[in-house]
Specification:
globular; 3% strand; two-stranded antiparallel sheet; Helicase, Ruva Protein, domain 3; mainly alpha
Length: 118
Amino acid sequence: MEDKNYQRLLKMSFAGVYPHYLTKVEKKGRTKEEVDHIIHWLTGYGAKTLQQHLDNKTNFEDFFTQATINPNASKITGVICGYRVEDIEVPLMQQIRYLDKLVDELAKGKAMEKILRE
């Protein structure tokens, strides 16, 4: 990814993108609770901490740097935004794309057990 675009993405507010995740899945009959469950699974954040990040408009860099990424996240594979997530070399970018991929799978109707790599 081009450095300028990468830096712009890192500074983007997670709270600014979160509603887009919700819109994407709700159009397909999925719920906010399911999106939050995915975020909790990936980041280790509880409901209160997630809400604090949303309220504080935490940027993506801080959101993922402060997270405890699930060890099973490395099982997330596939293409999102034109990139194969398992081949992304920059860990922070890979984590951002992991979340994009999980939300995409939820919107496509995949079972929660499969999304969470259980």
